[in-house]
């Protein structure tokens, strides 16, 4: 009798689990979710051209895979999709610009891609001080919609990157010296939480979540809409100077930058943005990498001579200089939608970020040499190292505990981008290079703390490196994670 009961219970358990597994393996999403979606939403299955467009990532380091894409058009579509996914225990991820590359993304397999791109509207407030943007808007769309009204705000530098993705990790861009990070401009947002509930966040509503979204936001929800501060466009242009130098100029260039900042103890003027790149340009030097040195200077038609004269004296191989308006910057910076960084092309683009305060000249030389060695192998010839020196005045003006973003004191954002056609046998070499590169810069920096920008994260960084070393900061984030996402549904981007 006891045996019979046990086996009966077992059979029922097996039957139930088969049923659950069956409904989990093949729930009919068209029939079950479709009726709850708005008329503009679509469900897209593998095998279609639309599916490829919605899932083709910029960086194939650790790509997530999807059983289905739900192209949402309203907040309630997002809620219905999250609830459907939860009912069937299917993982999900919001996507916008598809430029995220951190390795935790690869933990999402056969999930639901909550495609945000249809939510791309811009509405400028009547007082002209703020605008509300759809959660799936791109940098380009933000910039152009505001520009048409004589306005601007902080976005990432790359036209094809989302607004919200960068915002959730802080968000660096050309205008940050004047207005702060992308996230510093956030006034309020609508957020769909892990359980499908939609809430408003601001300094006065769910302010704890508002704090966390500004720097650790990938852990907490799907943003359907954000309202941010916007600004009048100044009447002046952006001057630029672009110089390309051969390999022997590394010391002179970074020493010059250090001279201007008294070795990192003072800031460059707020108007001054410096972005440099180590890259291979065989037409300039067939045997070695080169240094592309860029200055973007807001408020003038010519970069002031005090900056250009010493740089010209160093002896660039190629020079270009002119002025442009704000939307014209991306053409000069090679970050337009037509540029190489905006093409999706089955490539790995591994990043290993480190944020620092000043340049150590010997370390810059060693960094250049290691990059030169890596890219001597044609397999890695499209790789680069980015040295981003956006001005920081308005970033530093915000108290460090105001938001979750932990790295306000740093001046330079550096990352190798190790680029190659997808081929897993090359991954270990890329990782070895990136780890050594970052470690060497960290040791030269002399700081006990390694700071890694979450939006560039490789994926193997510690919580401290990514979200800050202060114990109170991590404790607060962990408490908020338990409160807003106890089942860890948002675990595919530098998870807490
Ligand atoms: C070529 C290139 C240029 C870049 N330029 C800059 C730059 O200038 N400044 C800068 O700060 N960073 C920059 N980044 C880094 C960028 O911040 C991250 O890659 C960011 O994750 C990209 O967001 P996305 O929407 O394009 O990508 P996705 O891969 O679509 O999204 C990335 C992450 O954001 C989440 N996400 C997207 N939309 C939403 C939403 N509406 N609600 C909730 N979560 C959402 C996704 O779930 C995912 O976790 C750049 C990266 C690349 C590859
Ligand atoms: C799913 O449901 C839709 C709509 O009810 C139906 O047209 C379709 O044939 C179903 N698909 C499968 C695989 O059963
Ligand atoms: C949900 O899925 C996860 C991983 O896919 C699994 O570990 C977990 O046990 C599942 N939960 C339920 C209730 O089936
Ligand atoms: C942007 O939004 C408009 C209006 O909803 C829509 O027609 C368009 O398709 C959206 N863009 C993308 C790329 O989805
Ligand atoms: C900057 O550092 C260099 C090299 O260590 C040193 O020679 C120089 O005096 C420093 N300059 C300032 C202003 O601190
Ligand atoms: C400078 O830019 C202006 C405006 O884009 C353009 O008309 C002009 O040809 C440029 N001059 C040079 C020398 O590139
Ligand atoms: C930041 O710290 C200051 C001083 O300790 C405190 O007054 C303030 O409330 C803190 N702000 C936040 C958002 O925690
Ligand atoms: C992958 O890289 C290895 C090592 O360089 C090379 O031998 C192999 O041919 C590559 N595979 C493809 C498909 O390109």
Description of the structure:
- The protein folds into three domains: 8-115, Uridine Diphospho-n-acetylenolpyruvylglucosamine Reductase, domain 3 (2-Layer Sandwich), CATH 3.30.465.10; 122-233 and 478-484, Uridine Diphospho-n-acetylenolpyruvylglucosamine Reductase, domain 3 (2-Layer Sandwich); 238-467, Vanillyl-alcohol Oxidase, Chain A, domain 3 (3-Layer(aba) Sandwich), CATH 3.40.462.
- Strand 5 and strand 6 (130-134) form a beta hairpin.
- It has helices spanning 2-25, 29-32, 49-55, 75-87, 139-147, 164-168, 176-179, 207-216, 250-260, 305-314, 329-332, 361-376, 393-396, 427-445, 463-467, 471-484; strands at 42-44, 66-71, 92-95, 111-115, 122-124, 130-134, 151-152, 186-192, 198-202, 222-229, 231-232, 238-245, 272-279, 290-298, 318-324, 347-351, 354-356, 384-389, 412-421.
- Helix 9 packs antiparallel against helix 12 (361-376).
- Strands 12, 13, 14, 15, 16, 17, 18 and 19 form an eight-stranded antiparallel beta sheet that branches.
- It has 496 residues and is of the alpha+beta class.
- It is built from 16 helices and 19 strands.
- Bound molecules: flavin-adenine dinucleotide and 2-acetamido-2-deoxy-beta-D-glucopyranose (7 copies).
- Residues 258, 262-263 line the site of one 2-acetamido-2-deoxy-beta-D-glucopyranose.
- It holds the Pfam family FAD_binding_4.
- Belongs to the oxygen-dependent FAD-linked oxidoreductase family.
- Residues 1-25 form the signal peptide.
- This is FAD-binding PCMH-type domain-containing protein.
- Keywords: FAD, Flavoprotein, Oxidoreductase, Signal.
């Amino acid at each position: 009798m006891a045996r019979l009961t046990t086996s009966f219970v077992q059979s029922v358990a097996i039957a139930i689990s088969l049923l659950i597994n069956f409904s989990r393996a093949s729930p009919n999403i068209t029939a079950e979710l479709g009726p709850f979606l708005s008329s503009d939403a679509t469900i897209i299955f593998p095998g279609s051209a639309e599916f490829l467009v919605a899932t083709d990532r910029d960086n194939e380091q650790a790509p997530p895979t999807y059983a289905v894409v739900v192209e949402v058009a309203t907040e309630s579509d997002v809620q219905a999709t999250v609830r459907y996914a939860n009912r069937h225990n299917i993982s999900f991820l919001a996507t916008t610009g598809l430029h995220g590359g951190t390795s935790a993304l690869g933990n999402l397999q056969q999930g639901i891609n909550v495609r945000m791109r249809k939510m791309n509207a811009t509405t400028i407030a009547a007082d002209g001080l703020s605008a509300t943007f759809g959660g799936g808007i791109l940098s380009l769309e933000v910039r152009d919609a505001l520009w048409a009204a004589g306005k601007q705000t902080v976005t990432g530098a790359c036209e094809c990157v989302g607004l919200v993705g960068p915002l959730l990790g802080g968000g660096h861009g050309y205008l940050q010296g004047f207005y702060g990070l992308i996230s510093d401009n956030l006034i309020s947002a609508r957020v769909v939480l892990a359980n499908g509930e939609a809430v408003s966040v601001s300094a006065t509503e769910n302010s704890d979540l508002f704090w966390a979204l500004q720097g650790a936001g990938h852990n907490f929800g799907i943003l359907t809409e954000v309202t941010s501060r916007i600004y009048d466009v100044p009447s002046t242009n952006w001057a630029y100077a672009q110089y390309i130098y051969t390999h022997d100029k590394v010391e002179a260039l970074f020493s010059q930058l250090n001279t201007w900042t008294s070795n990192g103890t003072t800031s460059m003027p707020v108007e001054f943005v410096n972005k440099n790149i180590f890259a291979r340009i065989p037409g300039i030097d067939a045997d070695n990498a080169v240094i592309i040195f860029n200055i973007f200077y807001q408020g003038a038609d010519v970069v002031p001579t005090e900056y250009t004269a010493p740089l010209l004296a160093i002896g660039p191989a190629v020079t270009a200089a002119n002025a442009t308006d704000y939307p014209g910057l991306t053409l000069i910076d090679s970050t337009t939608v037509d540029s190489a960084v905006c093409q999706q092309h089955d490539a790995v683009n591994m990043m290993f970020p480190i944020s620092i305060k000043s340049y150590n000249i010997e370390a810059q030389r060693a960094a250049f040499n290691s990059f030169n060695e890596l890219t001597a192998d044609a397999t890695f010839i499209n790789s680069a190292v980015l040295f981003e020196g956006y001005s920081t005045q308005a970033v530093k003006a915000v108290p460090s505990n105001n938001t979750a973003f932990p790295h306000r004191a740093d001046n330079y954002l550096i990352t190798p981008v190790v680029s190659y056609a997808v081929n897993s046998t090359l991954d270990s070499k890329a990782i070895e290079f990136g780890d050594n590169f970052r470690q060497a810069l960290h040791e030269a920096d002399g700081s006990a703390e390694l700071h890694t920008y979450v939006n560039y994260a490789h994926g193997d960084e510690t919580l401290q490196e990514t979200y800050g070393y202060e114990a109170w900061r991590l404790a607060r984030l962990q408490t908020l994670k338990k409160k807003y996402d106890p089942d860890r549904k948002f675990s595919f981007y530098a998870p807490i």
